[in-house]
Amino acid sequence: MSAGVVALIITALFQLIKPSIKDDYGWIIAAVVFAIMSLTNISAIYVLLASAAAGIIISYMKKRKEA
In angstroms, how far is CA 18 from the centroid of its own chain? Predict the structure, then answer.
């Protein structure tokens, strides 16, 4: 792959990530998911479900803290 193609892929990746990850917790979840997917053979379905559950729990706890 040429450097130009890699640069285009990275640019597209950041354009997708920027509006999706809204706070520090999102970055932490993304980093953990990346590590799990890179270093283990755990199914992506399980990782997706676990990260969604973590996001919902964190969102609930943040709303509860504000109230």
Answer: 11
CA torsion, ordered 50, 52, 56, 59, to nearest 10 deg: 110
Distance, C-alpha 7 to centroid of its chain: 20
Residue with tokens 């803290």: 65
- Residue 1: its pLDDT value, please? 66
Per-residue three-class SS string for the chain: CCHHHHHHHHHHHHHHHHHHCCCHHHHHHHHHHHHHHHHCCCCHHHHHHHHHHHHHHHHHHHHHHHC
For 28-45, write each residue's pLDDT tens digit.
998 999 899 999 999 999
**Tokens 């590590």 belong to which residue?**
35
